[in-house]
Amino acid sequence: MSPTANPVNETELCFPQLNSSCNRVLRPYALTIFAYIILSIITLLTVFLNLLVIISISHFKQLHTPTNSLILSLAVSDFFVGFILLFQSMLIDGCWYIGDLMCALYYGLDYIICSTSVGNMILISIDRYVAICDPLHYSIRVTQKRVQVCVCLCWICSLFCLVFLNENLTQPGQYNSCVGECVIIINLIERVAGFIFYFILPITVIVVLYMRVFVVAVSQARAMRSHITTVTVQGSRKVTAKKSELKAARTLGVVVGVFIICFCPYFCVSLADQETLFNISSAAYVICLYYFNSCLNPLIYAFFYPWFRKCIKVIVTLQILKSGSSDTNIL
Which residue ranges traverse the bilayer (predicted)? Predict the structure, then answer.
């Protein structure tokens, strides 16, 4: 190739001024712009929608329930995913421009949020299990204070996942083969341990609990239909309460189902092929699917929960700024 081709070669490097620079992934300009637009939209929606959930549950007193506290914790972790997507948007061309330390911190934050989301899903499943399968003791066993303690423990325990990144955090960039790369290496034992403790065991617990919830919910629904014509006024209130619990179980069941669908590829690839996962450029699609779950959760709430739609209206119209708005009848 003639020397005149050098400028073309330079445009293929992340850092053209460095001979040790990684190569940039070259894509059609229109496709690159489209990818930036899609990621930007997902990022904005993730941050904005989860912020609405956080404000709604935190502000309105009627929503201060144990179940909503779990949803709030999940929304907080999903909110931080929006900021992780900001890093992901710069990786469309396969280059990491902000240094090895930020690369390690990026993965550390990713691990913490991932494990927290898994923990939140387990807590939500347990909450629905007790509410549907043991409703008489629900208010005694599941209190606001106990849920808050469990949520705090969930976030604290998620910090232990940083053990898997110990070497990568103490010596950032040690596994990079060129400048502009963001690579971490986790040995097979650690990957298997992470796969078991952060995916297999949690998913098993979640699925078993929801299978039990499903069986009990179906039997309760049939019982309500068979006795609907003979209930008294007091009985109708009980039926309404049961319907509310069943609806909450169905909604959160959808959330858990979407969570499993979005997380399965991420964990399966992490176990099957480490290079495919931890080379950010080649893993972009799998990781984005994993992140996209955080954008879907508030959309599910908006579709299933009338109170969330009402909260959005109050917030967007700035009625939330009025005195005493926290006492607004949302339910």
Answer: 33-57, 69-92, 104-126, 147-165, 195-218, 252-272, 284-304
Residue 233 located in a structural domain: yes
CA–CA dist 37, 282 (Å, integer):
20
Cα(48)–Cα(103) distance, rounded to whole angstroms? 25
13 assigned to some structural domain: no
> How far are the Cα atoms of 106, 116, 171, 183, 203 from residue 280, in angstroms, in the given order?
11, 22, 19, 7, 25
Task: Mention every residue, 6+ apart, whose C-beta is less than 8 A from residue 173.
Answer: 99, 100, 101, 103, 104
Determine contact, residues 131/67, Cβ cutoff 8 Å.
Answer: yes
- Answer whether 256's CB lies under 8 Å from 264's CB: no
Kindly state whether residue 16 falls inside one of the protein's structural domains.
no
In whole angstroms, what is the distance from residue 114 CA to residue 250 CA?
A: 23
Tokens matching residue 162 = 């940083």
CATH number at residue 93: 1.20.1070.10
Q: Phi/psi of residue 13, each to 5°?
A: -100, 150
- pLDDT, tens digit, 9 for 90 and up, residues 88-112: 777 777 788 888 888 888 888 888 8
**DSSP assigned state of 182:** -
What is the share, in percent, of the chain residues with pLDDT greater than 90?
A: 7
Domain containing 305: what range?
29-327
| Residue from 181, 178, 183, 176 nearest 18 by CA | 178
Cα 151 to Cα 146: distance, rounded to the nearest angstrom: 9
Q: Name residue 170's amino acid.
A: T
- The DSSP line for 22-60 is PBP----HHHHHHHHHHHHHHHHHHHHHHHHHHHHHHH-
pLDDT of 273-309, one tens digit each? 544 444 444 455 666 777 788 888 888 876 777 888 8
Q: Which ranges of the chain does DSSP label H, i.e. alpha helix?
A: 6-10, 29-59, 66-89, 100-133, 138-141, 144-157, 166-170, 188-195, 201-227, 233-272, 274-278, 280-304, 306-316
Tell me the average pLDDT of the chain. Answer: 77
3-class SS of residue 179: strand
